[in-house]
């Protein structure tokens, strides 16, 4: 429901993939092309579970240290990332979707040149902009 509310409101139009780590994840949903943070709604509870692993192509909610801090940001797993899963020792990252086709596009984004912008690392040198979501 959370992600779809952002989609339906047009929130993701014009946001960039602001974190790109080759062979790991590509992350978007929080910044404009000028790297200005977008205002979001309330954070949501973490619904990560052992039955939804962060495998290649899984789409997951990004969050901070607090497991219940996810808002609008999400990432696409470019590899099987078991370290992001829930287990007896840690809260994981909630998988809520899957790339069914077009994974080659995610892989291409994962291979772009990156730089640091202020305190942000792994920012694409040339912005990768989401034109819209439906």
From TrEMBL:
Keywords: Isomerase, Rotamase. Residues 1-134 form the PPIase cyclophilin-type domain. GO terms for molecular function: peptidyl-prolyl cis-trans isomerase activity. It catalyses: [protein]-peptidylproline (omega=180) = [protein]-peptidylproline (omega=0). PANTHER family: PEPTIDYL-PROLYL CIS-TRANS ISOMERASE CYP38, CHLOROPLASTIC. PPIases accelerate the folding of proteins. It catalyzes the cis-trans isomerization of proline imidic peptide bonds in oligopeptides. Belongs to the cyclophilin-type PPIase family. This is Peptidyl-prolyl cis-trans isomerase. It comes from Rhizochromulina marina.
């Amino acid at each position: 429901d959370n992600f779809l509310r952002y989609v339906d409101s047009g929130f993701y139009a014009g946001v960039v993939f602001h974190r790109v780590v080759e062979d790991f994840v590509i992350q978007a949903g929080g910044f404009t092309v000028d790297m200005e943070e977008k205002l979001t709604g309330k954070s949501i509870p973490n619904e990560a579970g052992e039955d939804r692993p962060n495998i290649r192509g899984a789409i997951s909610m990004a969050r901070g240290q607090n497991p219940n801090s996810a808002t609008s940001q999400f990432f696409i797993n470019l590899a099987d990332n078991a370290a992001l899963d829930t287990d007896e020792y840690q809260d994981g990252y909630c998988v809520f979707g899957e790339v069914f086709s077009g994974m080659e596009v995610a892989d291409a984004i994962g291979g772009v040149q990156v730089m640091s912008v202020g305190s942000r690392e792994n920012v694409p040198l040339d912005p990768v902009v989401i034109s819209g979501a439906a």
